[in-house]
């Protein structure tokens, strides 16, 4: 998968050299490139923002640098044969976007080209989204109902969630199956040795060797935990 990131803080993404995503980049499973939005400004001050039409607090990111930066990536991507012929997907992290979920991470893991545009300030001029949605694919995506200063940290989270679902990135694909959210429920609690620690025992059923009983206990724990912590995830009872 090829991933392009546009940001005014390229240094944010140096951490993507490490851990699982770093390894996936080294092995060629992920081709990740970070672009500085300011390289696509044409004024002496390299300005990327201006005051909002209609007034109000804060600054809005100007459309021209975004247009030029995205054009440059799109023409570069089109020179490289892709695994599928789907157009690149443009993703803009935004608290006004649709909610990022495990299901969306799975969908994105099936793409061959993702382009992330990290906005700052009060957001990006709406015409950037409207322009690229005419001929391309654009999604605004939110991590949750809170506000970050910019899209960089959100993009990092999305890349980690998507990257680990790309075949070959996680060594043992079985470890992806029984995680929180994969079956719509929170995961069951896990234990390892020793069987007794600081007066706390591992639930005896896990030591029983009875695989049917263990599976039933884990399922029950998932349902109990989900009902207690995230009742919104359960299907409506009737
Ligand atoms: Cl994706 N961006 C920003 N700026 N704030 C957020 C967010 C994204 N998701 C939750 N809050």
Structure description:
The protein is α/β, with parallel strands linked by helices and 238 residues long. The chain folds into 2 domains: 2-164, 3-Layer(aba) Sandwich (Alpha/beta knot), CATH 3.40.1280.10; 178-233, tRNA(m1g37)methyltransferase, domain 2 (Trp Operon Repressor, Chain A, Orthogonal Bundle), CATH 1.10.1270. Helices cover 31% and strands 18% of the residues. It has 6 helices and 9 strands. The chain has helices spanning 19-26, 63-78, 102-109, 126-135, 152-163, 211-229, and strands at 2-7, 31-36, 49-50, 60-61, 89-99, 113-117, 137-142, 196-197, 200-201. A 5-stranded parallel β-sheet has the order 2-1-6-5-7. The chain has a two-stranded antiparallel sheet with strand order 3-4. Strand 5 (89-99), helix 3 (102-109) and strand 6 (113-117) form a beta-alpha-beta unit. The radius of gyration is 22 Å and the shape is elongated. The mean pLDDT is 94. GO terms for molecular function: tRNA (guanine(37)-N1)-methyltransferase activity. Belongs to the RNA methyltransferase TrmD family. It is an enzyme of class 2 (transferase).
């Amino acid at each position: 998968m090829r991933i392009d990131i546009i940001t005014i803080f390229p240094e944010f993404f140096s951490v993507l050299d490490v851990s699982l995503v770093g390894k996936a980049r080294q092995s060629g499973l992920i081709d990740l490139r970070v672009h500085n939005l300011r390289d696509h400004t044409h004024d002496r001050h390299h300005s990327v923002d201006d005051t909002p039409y209609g007034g109000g607090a804060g600054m809005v990111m100007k459309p021209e640098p975004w247009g030029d930066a995205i054009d440059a990536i799109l023409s570069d991507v089109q020179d490289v044969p892709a695994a599928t012929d789907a157009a690149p997907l443009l993703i803009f992290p935004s608290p006004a976007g649709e909610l990022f979920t495990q299901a969306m991470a799975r969908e994105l893991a099936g793409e061959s080209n993702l382009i992330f545009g990290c906005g700052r300030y009060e957001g990006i001029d709406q015409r950037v989204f409207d322009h690229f949605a005419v001929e391309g694919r654009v999604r605004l995506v939110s991590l949750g109902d809170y506000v970050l200063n910019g899209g960089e940290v959100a993009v990092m989270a999305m890349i980690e969630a998507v990257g680990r679902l790309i075949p070959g990135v996680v060594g043992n694909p079985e470890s992806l199956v029984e995680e929180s959210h994969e079956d719509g429920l929170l995961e069951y609690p896990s234990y390892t040795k020793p069987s007794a620690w600081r007066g706390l025992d591992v639930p005896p059923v896990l030591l029983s060797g009875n695989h049917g009983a263990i599976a039933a206990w884990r399922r029950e724990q998932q349902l109990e935990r989900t009902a207690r912590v995230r009742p919104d995830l359960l299907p409506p009872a009737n």
